[in-house]
Structure formats: structure tokens, C-alpha cells
């Protein structure tokens, strides 16, 4: 029975494993864990991370060594798994993996980060254009087969002013550009998905999931909410609790992101 799902950008899994990820995974109550920015081939990972006891692991490393990479860990063996979403440009970039569980498709997504005026931003925009088409198709297919969809990951876009502490200073930076925010609105309004955490926390700042390592961003809670669980409406309605597992202190962090965990009332 699916009950708890966690998504987290690990900012390099080998380093995170040494700093606390392994202990976190051993203690988590999650039924599915979605990882982003793994930045390693499976064979480069310690055996206890590559094949963690009690988990079924799906790895999607990037063709470019040491970059990107996503994974899915599930307590239940997946009925099906898929790497990439049918994109000639992005299917080997380590940015998309999905599994099918009974009645539910779960995706781990690492949407490209960008930088205004550079090829990185152009790459991000190309990804967004293709990915919205896929999201529409995915929801259509799910509706036909009576399934729900859950897309977890680092979307690298803060949707609303409430999703980052210093929104006024970031309006011209990638991650909070008007066109990026408008695209994410299309994911909700046009494709019909639901921002699960925002649904449960409609009127509060954050809760933030990423803090720069620079300065006192973490200590001052000057963060961004860019890690989402985005679901089809039927599953979103089953969400009963959401939290960001923020480290107790700066030196206790094992990533610059924190796990975003949602509890669902019943299996989809």
C-alpha cells in the first residue's frame, strides 16, 4: 500500500551517502523515494546504496559523466520501468525515470537549471516545451487506464512569490522568470496537475526545500521551494500531510536540498 512518498535532490549521491543520506534512508518511512542529481553511474556507488536492503532501485544516469542522474527507490517491485520520456535530446541526460506501481505511475524528474542569456537557459526552455507535451500525454493515458500520476523532483522553478524568500531580487534570474512561472501555471491549469504541497499549505511562505551554501541562507531560512510533488487530481485529494525534512543545523545537511515528504491517505 502506497502511503508516503519522498523526493530529494541529493547533490551528488556518493558525497551525500558519506554525510548522512544512508542513515536517513535507513530511518525513512517512505514507500517510494525519488532522487535527483545523483551524479554517478550505479557501479560507482557503494553496494548498500546501489542495492539498498528492502528497496527496488531504478537508476537513470546521464550520458555526460558526473552530471544530473535520477533514480527511484520503491519498497514494492515495479510492474514496469521507463527511462526518458521519448525525447531525442534528453532521454540520455539523466533527467527522467518512471515506474508503474498498482494504479499509479511515479516519476523522478530533474528539470534543467538555467542561466539567463546562455545556452543553459535555451536548453531549459527546450526541455520545458517537450516536457509539457509529455505531461499532457501522460495524464491522458492515465485517465484512459484509470491510473494516477505523481511527478516528483527538482523542477528548478519557483512558481509563486511565496515560493522563495527574496522574490523581489530574483525576478530576472533563472528559476523565477515570468515565462518559467507561466509555464508551470500551464502544468497546473492546462495539463491539469496539482501542486500537492501548496494544496496542503495554501497560505504560507515556502515551505522552502533548497538553500544556497553561500552566506547565511540556510540559517536565515532564505530559501526556494523548487522541489515538488505534482499529481493528478485524484491522488492529490488523498494527500493528508506534507513536510520538508529540514536539517536541524547547517552542519547536519547532506545536500543543499531537503527531502520533501508527502503522506497519502490510501493507495491510488
UniProtKB/TrEMBL annotation:
<feature type="binding site">
    <location>
        <position position="154"/>
    </location>
    <ligand>
        <name>Mg(2+)</name>
    </ligand>
</feature>
<comment type="similarity">
    <text>Belongs to the DNA repair enzymes AP/ExoA family.</text>
</comment>
<dbReference type="InterPro" id="IPR005135">
    <property type="entry name" value="Endo/exonuclease/phosphatase"/>
</dbReference>
<feature type="site" description="Important for catalytic activity">
    <location>
        <position position="227"/>
    </location>
</feature>
<feature type="active site" description="Proton acceptor">
    <location>
        <position position="257"/>
    </location>
</feature>
<feature type="active site">
    <location>
        <position position="110"/>
    </location>
</feature>
<keyword id="KW-0464">Manganese</keyword>
<dbReference type="GO" id="GO:0046872">
    <property type="term" value="F:metal ion binding"/>
</dbReference>
<keyword id="KW-0378">Hydrolase</keyword>
<dbReference type="GO" id="GO:0006281">
    <property type="term" value="P:DNA repair"/>
</dbReference>
<feature type="binding site">
    <location>
        <position position="256"/>
    </location>
    <ligand>
        <name>Mg(2+)</name>
    </ligand>
</feature>
<dbReference type="InterPro" id="IPR036691">
    <property type="entry name" value="Endo/exonu/phosph_ase_sf"/>
</dbReference>
<dbReference type="Pfam" id="PF03372">
    <property type="entry name" value="Exo_endo_phos"/>
</dbReference>
<feature type="binding site">
    <location>
        <position position="9"/>
    </location>
    <ligand>
        <name>Mg(2+)</name>
    </ligand>
</feature>
<feature type="binding site">
    <location>
        <position position="156"/>
    </location>
    <ligand>
        <name>Mg(2+)</name>
    </ligand>
</feature>
<feature type="binding site">
    <location>
        <position position="37"/>
    </location>
    <ligand>
        <name>Mg(2+)</name>
    </ligand>
</feature>
<feature type="binding site">
    <location>
        <position position="257"/>
    </location>
    <ligand>
        <name>Mg(2+)</name>
    </ligand>
</feature>
<dbReference type="InterPro" id="IPR004808">
    <property type="entry name" value="AP_endonuc_1"/>
</dbReference>
<protein>
    <submittedName>
        <fullName>Exodeoxyribonuclease III</fullName>
        <ecNumber>3.1.11.2</ecNumber>
    </submittedName>
</protein>
<keyword id="KW-0479">Metal-binding</keyword>
<feature type="site" description="Transition state stabilizer">
    <location>
        <position position="156"/>
    </location>
</feature>
<feature type="site" description="Interaction with DNA substrate">
    <location>
        <position position="257"/>
    </location>
</feature>
<feature type="active site" description="Proton donor/acceptor">
    <location>
        <position position="154"/>
    </location>
</feature>
<dbReference type="GO" id="GO:0008311">
    <property type="term" value="F:double-stranded DNA 3'-5' DNA exonuclease activity"/>
</dbReference>
<keyword id="KW-0460">Magnesium</keyword>
<dbReference type="InterPro" id="IPR037493">
    <property type="entry name" value="ExoIII-like"/>
</dbReference>
<feature type="domain" description="Endonuclease/exonuclease/phosphatase">
    <location>
        <begin position="7"/>
        <end position="257"/>
    </location>
</feature>
